[in-house]
Amino acid sequence: MVRLVSLIIFSLATILLATKSSLCHGKTTLNLVDHGITFSIFPLRLKSGLGGHYIPEISCSSWRLAVEAHNIIDWKTIPQECEGYVGNYVLGKQYREDSKAVTEEAYKYAQSLNLVGDGKDIWVFDIDETSLSNLPYYAQHGFGVEPFNETSFSEWADHGIAPPLPESRTLYKNLLNLGIKVVFLTGRSESLRDSTLKNLKDAGYNTFEALILRNSTEYNGKTGVTYKSSERKKLEEKGYRIVGNIGDQWSDILGTNTGNRTFKLPDPMYYIS
Length: 273
Ligand SMILES: *[C@@H]1O[C@H](CO)[C@@H](O)[C@H](O)[C@H]1NC(C)=O
Ligand SMILES: *[C@@H]1O[C@H](CO)[C@@H](O)[C@H](O)[C@H]1NC(C)=O
Ligand SMILES: *[C@@H]1O[C@H](CO)[C@@H](O)[C@H](O)[C@H]1NC(C)=O
Ligand SMILES: [Mg+2]
Fold this sequence. Notes:
By secondary structure, the protein is an alpha/beta fold. The chain is built from ten helices and seven strands.
């Protein structure tokens, strides 16, 4: 009976909407009359391309979602027309809010753990676009429109002046307070060890169990997934338990020995396989 009544109400509403929408033919606003009052259901001009117009923000937003969901993979540069969109995103509030949604969830999870408390519980942190932010560099290089230039990026990174990603640093401090140790595992090469150490300390990451950088001899020609899986395996062989793992790249959290839970921070600027 209740279902029948619901069905009738739904049908009436549908007919009403259809009638009113046809009356508003040619407009994007849809009015609904209820108890003699007219409501605009869509008071804003929709940016959904209803009229068949191409709207860059919508396409770039879809592109970013597909990138974050790992549906678009192995891309070399961001679409040219998305430079403004990506720049606005990473310099704006949304990037910070999206990062916070990730790190707060990570902290909730960490609080729920029953830790052994023998000092072997660790959390793996990636560095670039996770612990540290290279936005000052990418802002000068089209936010990912330019193909990645290892030489020029390394020159910049070697200055050791990257600011922290504030949400990650908060997570880092909270994890330390829970008794979880932190290991930094980065795709940066061994040649950047000193500047990276200095940068981490200046950015407020003073306490950590290890800083693992990429040995370019051992991992020559290997993907990030292979390198990071192998280094995490070595950690587990040393008796550590990886309770959590956070990074901005899928290659930080795919592969083997990924840890009990993984957390993916946003990064619409570049892709590392
Ligand atoms: C990469 O950066 C270096 C150092 O800034 C520069 O000399 C070189 O021309 C760049 N390579 C490309 C392909 O742009
Ligand atoms: C890098 O790996 C090579 C080959 O496995 C090894 O001989 C070398 O000692 C390693 N370098 C560092 C800095 O760990
Ligand atoms: C992590 O996963 C392992 C293997 O599934 C499990 O034995 C262990 O209890 C988990 N640790 C935590 C802290 O959840
Ligand atoms: Mg990274």
